[in-house]
Design brief:
Keywords: Membrane, Transmembrane, Transmembrane helix
Transmembrane segments: 12-33, 40-57, 77-95
Pfam families: DUF3017 (PF11222)
Strand content: under 5%
Protein name: DUF3017 domain-containing protein
Helix content: 55-70%
Largest sheet: none
Order of helices and strands: HHHH
Structural class: mainly alpha
Shape: flat
Number of helices: 4
Number of domains: 1
Number of strands: 0
Length: 96
């Protein structure tokens, strides 16, 4: 009878990825509402959150955040996050 119900432990594996996606969606929403600098910073923060979660969560519980090895994932997530935030903060002009 309970075969169609998802197992809680399997569902909880996807919570970190869902959190990162939720933060990313907020960033995209801000960009769509013409707050491009804030939205881009939020997108960079989503990558930094992904790096932090990947560092803290064991490999078998990382779910879709685990793409490569732990070290490579942490370096790439945090590197791209810092680069995106840095670029967003240093661009001048456009609309503010």
């Amino acid at each position: 009878m309970s075969d169609w119900l998802p197992d809680r432990s399997r569902l909880s594996i996807h919570v970190p990825f869902g959190l990162v996606c939720g933060i990313g969606l907020i960033g995209f929403l801000l960009v769509a509402l013409q707050h491009w600098r804030r939205g881009t910073v939020v997108l960079g923060l989503a990558l930094l959150v992904a790096a932090g979660l990947r560092a803290m969560i064991p490999d078998e519980r990382a779910g879709l955040l685990a793409i490569r090895s732990r070290v490579v994932d942490i370096l790439l997530y945090s590197g791209f996050g810092v680069v995106i935030i840095s670029i967003a903060m240093t661009i001048r002009g456009l609309f503010g």
